[in-house]
Amino acid sequence: MIMEQTRLQAGKGYGNTLNCILTVYRNESVVGFFKGMSFPLASIAVYSSVTFGVFSNTQRFISQQRYGDSNHAPALSDLIVASMVAGVVSVGIGGPVDLIKIRLQMQTQTFFKANINLKHRAIGFPAYRGPIHCVSSILRQEGLAGMYRGAGAMLLRDVPGYCLYFIPYTVLCGWITPEGCISPSPSSVWMAGGIAGAISWGTATPMDVVKSRLQADGVYLNKYKGIIDCISQSYHSEGLKVFVRGLTVNAVRGFPMSAAMFLGYELSRKALRGDQAATNP
C-alpha cells in the first residue's frame, strides 16, 4: 500500500486507489508494488526504535523534572511536548529514507515532454538503478541538502502527526484498560495503537501529499519552488480534492502498522522492566 499511496499523491493519471493498483499491475506487474521498498525495510527498525525511544525518554525526563518521579503519569502538556520532540527527530532520520523511497517509486512515471527542463536524462528510462545509486546521484547533483528535500513539509506533517499518534494511543489505552490493572493487555495495546495510527495518518494526509510531491520533484523535472508553491500549483491544477489523495490508503495502512508497532514497543518495555527487576531487586 505504500507504493499506491505515493503514486496517488505525487503521480498523474490515477483516478482512485483501485485504478492505481490496476494501472501499476498492468504496466509493471507484481514487481511494481515493491519498488523502492528495500531502503525503508532496511531502516525501519532503527527509525521506529529511535522515534519511540525519544518519545518515551522525553516523557520520562519531563516527569522527572516536573514531579520528581520519572514514572509519574504524564499530563496532556507533557505528552504534547514529548510527541513534538519525537516528530522533529523523526524528520532527521526519516527524511532521507522517504526521499529515496519516493524517488525510486516515481521514476517510472510518465512525464510530458513539455514539462521537461532537465539535466540530460533520457525520458522513459529509470533515473536510478537502485537505492545506493539514488543516494549517490542526489548527493552529487544536489548536495547533502538534497537528501532533505521536502523536510519542511515533513516537519509540518510529523510534529502534529505524532501528537495525534501518541496522545490518542495513551488516552485510549487508559480508557480500554480495566481499572486496577498495572499495564494494558496486548489486545488493548493493539486496538489503541491501531486506532491512533488511523487517526494520525488520516489527518496527516494533506501535508503528506505536499511532502510526497516535493520529494518526487527532481526525478525528471523541477516543478515546485517550495511548500507554498506546491500547495498553490496543486490546488489550481487539481482542486481541493488533491489534498485528500491517499486518505483511504493512509488510514487503512495506519491501523495494522501502528497496532504492530505499539504492541512491539509495549512488549519490549515489559521485557526490559522484567530484566531490570531481576537484576535490581
TrEMBL record:
The keyword Transport applies. InterPro entries: MCP_dom_sf (IPR023395), MCP_transmembrane (IPR018108), Mitochondrial_Carrier (IPR050567). GO terms for molecular function: transmembrane transporter activity. One of its GO terms (cellular component) is mitochondrial inner membrane. It comes from the Eukaryota. The chain crosses the membrane at residues 37-55, 76-97. It is a multi-pass membrane protein. This is Solute carrier family 25 member 48. It comes from Chrysemys picta bellii (Western painted turtle).
